[in-house]
Structure formats: structure tokens, C-alpha cells
From TrEMBL:
Name under which the protein is recorded: Spermidine synthase
Species this chain originates from: Carboxylicivirga mesophila
Annotated InterPro entries: SAM-dependent_MTases_sf
Pfam families, per the entry: Spermine_synth
SUPFAM superfamilies tied to this protein: S-adenosyl-L-methionine-dependent methyltransferases
Residue ranges of the TM segments: 7-27, 33-55, 67-85, 105-127, 139-159, 165-184, 538-562, 574-595, 607-627, 633-655, 662-685, 697-715, 722-740
UniProt keywords, alphabetically: Membrane, Transmembrane, Transmembrane helix
Length: 748
């Protein structure tokens, strides 16, 4: 393949654009909560298609001489975007009761979308002028995007997210330098130099819009999370993750040989349970700042597995900033430090745990999943509780606490035990309420729980302790009507009609535990009163945001893509217009579902996301290059057949191969995803061959459809699961199969 200047420009521009999207997602997920980050970035990405549409309506922009200026402008807008947006101090909680916030939201979308807009003009212009070389051009686009995924994650993990946001602009400036042919090359050179000069000041430029709750004594920002350590007192620090999740860090001198009167107290102790075992093996599921580990070691546990998906937190505890303060806790010979997704570790651990302990492991802390950050983890699904149950020793216990999810989790525990063949699941279960902490707690036993264990497992359930600790199940006569007791005794279905939250069990195919809100709770008065980022007691905020994005695109953006029909020259036929629309929806629907779905298999981490998206985009690039060697109809048939095969094989792969090492799970994922990616790279090229220079219009339609695809697929996924999302994607590709046989260009 001959490498041309045009392919190099596309490669560099695509590398920067997708890197920018991923890095911005990480920045704004930490600042605005991931649901709002999804909103602003999804709408901003529409700029890519709008840039292509603007080119279709204006021939002047298509001149090669304008590439250098447009690319320099793209890079400049990328540099300015995050600092300016954070300076606006957008507050989503006031969005619908403060007109200034609405104006700030509009300004944010324009600011962030501007770089996509100018970049879209360049991409579509090159596609239009060199459409006969589309297999090579589209390959360069996809391979640039694939490398951008890797670059963004490695840069965020290597130099920090704030600096990565500036470094990733360099490829665009290099492209601008190559596009200029005269002394104008000095423009991108000076802009590159400016970016380098600003690097040491990124922490000052990307100033958080959040008000810190205490003195920040340490910060770290990588592809997984933004971490802050708060100093509440000399004896108590707090580890904050993405301004959402919190984990305590307790001062400890390393001395376990102290009398009971000097032992460190814990609000949810596991002492009663761990003392039942002569050699207790303890699993801290989401160890965070090490509070669980300290408690277990203080109680004399023989072996502690501290499992935390964020490796930097473990590094802080073993040899970093938190090591000395926590008394070198993680280097105790009894502690095994594990930097891995908890579900993946539980599945592959070849022994049993006597006690599995989890405090407030947050499903609503976003995955590092680009702008598609509405995904959650798999800690609280029915299958997860099956895994935990099977991982317990014959007399083992699971103790799991959470502020919001317990009613739904109770439904999942009951379903899990039924699937495991337990005749009386309720006999294995006890549930408690800690009103002063606003927490609920589940106790699950491998064997049926006896009365003494139920009443003494945490705190003694008596009248004296009732103010701060009470037993909801098995319930005393005075508490028989409490919701938890009713869910367990009568089933969640009987309770759902009067419940204010969704009680239905989540599964690995529908792992959205945090989507607790119900549409029946949605009202204009409630929205105006407050708009919290996590509507655990109200309406389903994520679903509402998805509908808002869809409405905006369908009502405003899609009609704009009909404007070229007003011009008298040649135009796409209805079939051609619809073809580029359906392949855009189908591609993004599959991409969004695969990112989340295969995270279950290889575990939740920034490298998982990087692997999945890199393989999908890189294989699509290869498919684009080789597309002319395949019959027109083959890609569509192959994609649909793969979707069917994946629906059948994926559960088997998770069940039988999930115990393999991380390296093998990544290799297997690559082998499974690459084939569908290969064929997904062909439909756009096939459409280009039939549309000719109208491909810029097709690119504009495809851009708008991509945003629709990434949001539309979430509706069946939220409601019914990933399988239904894949069915939707398959239906769009089948429609594309029918449309590709039609004529795409009508004479003007």
C-alpha cells in the first residue's frame, strides 16, 4: 500500500480526535459525574458530522489550502476546551432551575464540539476528493483511532490525565505542519511549542469545579480514576475516587499486640464471623484505603486477600503515599495484595474464602469507557452472588453493605441461591439497617444461619442498640412490614408496585444495578427542585439523558442532514441516505455493547477498555483495506452470523475460560472480537463506492447516526439486556444489506 500525504493527515487527525474524546471523558466524568459527562460529550461529538455537512454545503471549505489552517484551529480548540469549560463552573444540579446554567451547558457543548467540527471538515474533505482510494483512507482513519485509544490510556497512566489532555494535541499540529507548504508551517510549530510550555501548568489550568470537603494532601489522575487524599485529622484520612466514591484510611502504628481497650473500633465489624474459624481466609472485595484489611488483621485473621481494581491505590498502600500512614499494613506477610477486578479474581481463585467482606463498593463509579461511560461494573448481579456463594468455604459467610442497592441486591441473592439449587434461600440470609450511617447490610451464609449468628454477627440486635443497628430480616413482629422483609417473604414482584425504586434482579446481561429510578417518579416539579447525578430514589436519570440526546439529534441534527437536497446538483437517493444512517447506528451499537460485555470476561480496568476498542478499530481498519476483495453482501451476513454466534458462545466462554490468567483472557477476547471488527470496517467503504464524491454527505449522516447508535442501543440494554442491544444492531445491519442493492446517487 502506498502511503500518501492524505492518509497520513487522516491518521494523525483521527489519532488525536479519539484520544481527545477518551481523555475528556475521564476529565468530565471526574468533574461532573459520568452521566453528565456522557451528555455533554455525546452532543459535542455531533460536531464531527456537522463539520462534514457544512463542507457539503460550502465548496470553498474543500480547498486543500485550507487544511493547514483548519488543523491548527482544531488543535488550538482542543487545547482550550477543558480549561475554558471548567472555568465556567457548570453545575448540573441547577440545570433546570437556573437559566445561567442552561446557557453554560450550551456554551460547553459549543466549546467542546468546535474541535470535532473543524476536524470533521478536514476528514470529509479528504474523503470527498479522494473517494476512489476510500479503502486506504478509511483504514487510516480507523487505525489512527485504534492507536489513539492506546495512546490516550498509556499517556493518562504514564504522565497523568491533565498532561495527557495537552500532549495528545501534538499529532494534529504535526498534521497541520505537513499540510502547510510555505512559511505558514511556523503556525503549528508555535502552537506545539505553546502546548509544551503549558505542560507544567496543567494542574493550574484544569482546576476542579468541585469544592473539596477537606484539605487535599495528595492527587493522582490516570485512565482509571481521579484520586484525592483528604486530611480530616491527624488520625483519619479519606481516599476519594472521581469525586463520588470514598474510602477511609486509618492511622496505624503497625502494632497489633494491644489490649482490647486500645483496639481500633469499626462500625461494621466482622470479628464474630472471623472468630469462628481457626485459620480464617478473608477476602476484602474492593479494599480501597485498607480499612477492611486493618480490621481483619486486628481480629487475628490468618490470610487476607486485598482485592482492588485500581492498581494505583494498591501501590499507594504498599510503597506509596499511604504506606507509612497505614502502618505498612499491606506488607504484612498475611496480606495478599491483588490488583484485579473482584469478579474475575473470585472466579479464578482455586480455593475458598471463609469470609467475603464488602463495604460500599460503588457500581456507579464510571468505567474508563470513553464517552460511553454509562456502563457499570459486575459486582452486584445475580451471577455475581452465585460466584461469591460458590467461592465460600463450607461454613463461610458473605457480608456486603451498601447505601442504596440493598433492596435490589436482596432480590439478586434470592435468585442466585435458587439457581444454585438451594431449597430455602431465605434461611441463608439476614439483613440489617444502620440508620445513623444510612446503610443496609446483607449477611449470607453458605449454610442456613442460626439464631445466634443472626443476632450477633455484627452488633447484638437488642433494644439497647436499636438506635444505630436493627434487624430487618428475619424481622421482629414490629418490623414485619418493612420492605426488605416483604421482598424476602413475598418476592420482589409483590412489592414492586408500591416501591419507589426498581427492585428487579440485575444479571450479567443487564448489570445496571445503579439504575434504580422509575419513570413513574419523573415530574417537572421534582426535576426543578433538584437534579442529582445519581437518582437512586427518583427517576432513571441515565435513561432521561439518553432520551434527551436522541430527541436533540432526531429533531435538530437529522433534519439538517436533509439540507443538501435543496441544492440542484446530484444527491443521495433515499436508499443511499438511509444506508449511511443505519450502518452508523449499527457500528456504534455493537461497539458500545462489546466494550461493556467483554469487560465481564477480562475484568474492569482501563487496559481492558483499551484492548477491546483497539482490537475492534484495528481489525475494522484491516477490513476496510481488504473490502474490495469481498462480495458486497458478505460483510452484512458475516456480522449478523457473528452476533448470533456470540450470543450463544459468550456465556460459555465466561463460564469455562473465565478462570484463566488475565493474559489468556485478553488473547481470547482479541480472537473473538477481531472477526466482527474485520467485517464492520467494510460497509462504509462499500457505500463510498456507490456514492462517489457524495461520501462527505454520507460521512455527515454517519456521524449523526453514530451518536444515535451509542445512545439508542442503551434503551433496550437498560430495559432488557445486552442481548437485545445486539439484536437491535443486527437488525440495522440486515437493513443495510437490503439497501446496499439499491442506487445511491440521483442525478441533479
Amino acid at each position: 500500500m502506498k502511503v500518501t500525504k492524505q492518509t497520513v493527515l487522516i491518521f494523525l487527525l483521527s489519532l488525536s480526535l479519539i484520544s481527545m474524546e477518551i481523555i475528556w471523558s475521564r476529565i468530565f466524568s471526574a468533574e461532573y459525574f459520568y452521566t453528565f459527562a456522557f451528555l455533554i460529550l455525546s452532543i459535542s461529538i455531533l460536531g464531527l458530522g456537522l463539520g462534514a455537512l457544512t463542507l457539503r454545503m460550502s465548496k470553498r471549505l474543500a480547498a486543500k489550502e485550507s487544511y493547514g489552517c483548519l488543523l491548527s484551529l482544531t488543535g488550538l480548540l482542543m487545547l482550550a476546551g477543558p480549561p475554558v469549560v471548567l472555568y465556567l463552573k457548570l453545575d448540573f444540579t441547577q440545570l433546570l432551575n437556573n437559566y445561567q446554567m442552561l446557557l453554560k451547558l450550551m456554551a460547553t457543548i459549543i466549546i467542546l464540539g468546535s474541535s470535532f467540527f473543524t476536524g470533521g471538515i478536514v476528514l470529509s474533505s479528504i474523503f470527498r476528493k479522494a473517494h476512489v482510494a476510500m479503502p486506504q483512507l478509511y483504514m487510516a482513519d480507523l487505525l489512527g483511532a485504534a492507536l489513539g485509544v492506546v495512546a490516550s490510556v498509556l499517556l493518562m497512566n504514564g504522565i497523568g490525565t491533565d498532561k495527557a489532555a495537552f500532549v495528545i494535541v501534538l499529532p494534529v499540529f504535526i498534521a497541520s505542519f505537513l499540510a502547510f507548504t510555505t512559511w505558514f508551517k511556523a503556525i503549528p510549530a508555535l502552537l506545539m511549542l505553546s502546548g509544551v510550555i503549558l505542560l507544567p501548568r496543567t494542574d493550574q489550568l484544569l482546576v476542579s469545579a468541585q469544592k473539596d470537603r477537606a484539605e487535599v494532601i495528595y492527587q493522582h489522575w490516570d485512565a482509571m480514576a481521579r484520586l484525592k487524599v483528604y486530611k480530616y485529622s491527624d488520625e483519619y484520612w479519606g481516599l476519594n475516587i472521581d469525586n463520588a466514591a470514598n474510602s477511609p484510611v486509618i492511622a496505624f502504628d503497625g502494632n497489633f499486640n494491644r489490649p482490647d481497650s486500645l483496639r481500633i473500633p469499626f462500625s461494621i465489624p466482622s470479628t464474630y464471623l472471623t472468630s469462628k474459624f481457626d485459620n480464617c481466609r478473608f477476602l476484602s472485595l474492593g479494599a480501597g484505603g485498607g480499612g477492611d484489611v486493618l480490621m481483619a488483621l486486628q481480629d487475628g485473621v490468618t490470610e487476607v486477600h486485598a482485592v482492588e481494581v485500581n492498581s494505583h491505590i494498591n501501590n499507594m498502600m504498599t510503597s506509596g503515599f499511604l504506606n507509612e500512614f497505614s502502618g505498612n499494613l499491606y506488607n504484612d506477610e498475611r496480606v495478599k495484595v491483588v490488583s484485579e477486578d473482584a469478579r474475575a479474581y473470585v472466579r479464578r481463585f482455586d480455593n475458598y474464602f471463609d469470609v467475603i467482606y464488602s463495604l460500599s463498593s460503588n457500581s456507579f463509579a464510571a468505567l474508563a469507557s470513553g464517552s460511553f461511560a454509562l456502563a457499570e461494573n459486575y459486582l452486584f448481579t445475580t451471577e455475581a452472588f452465585q460466584d461469591y456463594y460458590k467461592a465460600l468455604s463450607p461454613n463461610g459467610y458473605l457480608m456486603m453493605e451498601h447505601q442504596f442497592y440493598v433492596p435490589r441486591m436482596v432480590s439478586e441473592v434470592l435468585d442466585a441461591l435458587k439457581r444454585e439449587g438451594i431449597e430455602n434461600p431465605a434461611a441463608h440470609l439476614a439483613v440489617y439497617h444502620l440508620p445513623t450511617m444510612r446503610r443496609h447490610l446483607i449477611l449470607l451464609g453458605k449454610q442456613p444461619l442460626d439464631g445466634a449468628t443472626i443476632s450477633q454477627a455484627v452488633h447484638e440486635t437488642n433494644e439497647e442498640n436499636y438506635a444505630f443497628f436493627r434487624q430487618l430480616y428475619p424481622a421482629a413482629d414490629s418490623l414485619q412490614t418493612n420492605p426488605i422483609n416483604q421482598i424476602i417473604t413475598n418476592g420482589w414482584e409483590a412489592r414492586q408496585a408500591e416501591a419507589s425504586t426498581n427492585l428487579s434482579p440485575c444479571t450479567d446481561d443487564r448489570p445496571f444495578t445503579g439504575q434504580l429510578g422509575l419513570m413513574k417518579n419523573l415530574s417537572l416539579e421534582q426535576v426543578k427542585k433538584r437534579l442529582l447525578p445519581y437518582e437512586f430514589q427518583g427517576f432513571p436519570l441515565s435513561m432521561v439523558i439518553v432520551l434527551v440526546i436522541l430527541a436533540l439529534v432526531i429533531i435538530v441534527v437529522l433534519p439538517l442532514n436533509l439540507l443538501p437536497y435543496l441544492k440542484k446538483n446530484s444527491a443521495l437517493t433515499a436508499a443511499g441516505w438511509l444506508y449511511f444512517f443505519v450502518i452508523g447506528v449499527g457500528f456504534m451499537a455493537i461497539e458500545v455493547v462489546l466494550i461493556q460485555k467483554y469487560t465481564l470476561f477480562i475484568g474492569s480496568s482501563s487496559y481492558t477498555f483499551m484492548t477491546l476498542l483497539f482490537v475492534l478499530l484495528a481489525s475494522s481498519g484491516l477490513g476496510s483495506y481488504f473490502s474490495t476483495r469481498f462480495k458486497t453482501s458478505l460483510p452484512f451476513v458475516a456480522i449478523v452470523l457473528w452476533l448470533i454466534a456470540d450470543a450463544v458462545l459468550f456465556p460459555l466462554v465466561v463460564a469455562h475460560l473465565g478462570v484463566l490468567s488475565l493474559a489468556w483472557r485478553i488473547i481470547i477476547t482479541c480472537l473473538m472480537v477481531a472477526p466482527v471488527g474485520f467485517f464492520m470496517g467494510m460497509p462504509f467503504v462499500k457505500g463510498s463506492a456507490k456514492s462517489g464524491e457524495l461520501i462527505d454527505w454520507g460521512f455527515a449522516i454517519n456521524g449523526a447516526a453514530s451518536v444515535i447508535g451509542s445512545t439508542l442501543v442503551l434503551i433496550p440494554v437498560f430495559l432488557y439486556g445486552f442481548t437485545y442491544g445486539m439484536v437491535m444492531a443486527g437488525a440495522f445491519y440486515l437493513l443495510a444489506y437490503l439497501l446496499i442493492k439499491k442506487t445511491f446517487v440521483a442525478a441533479g
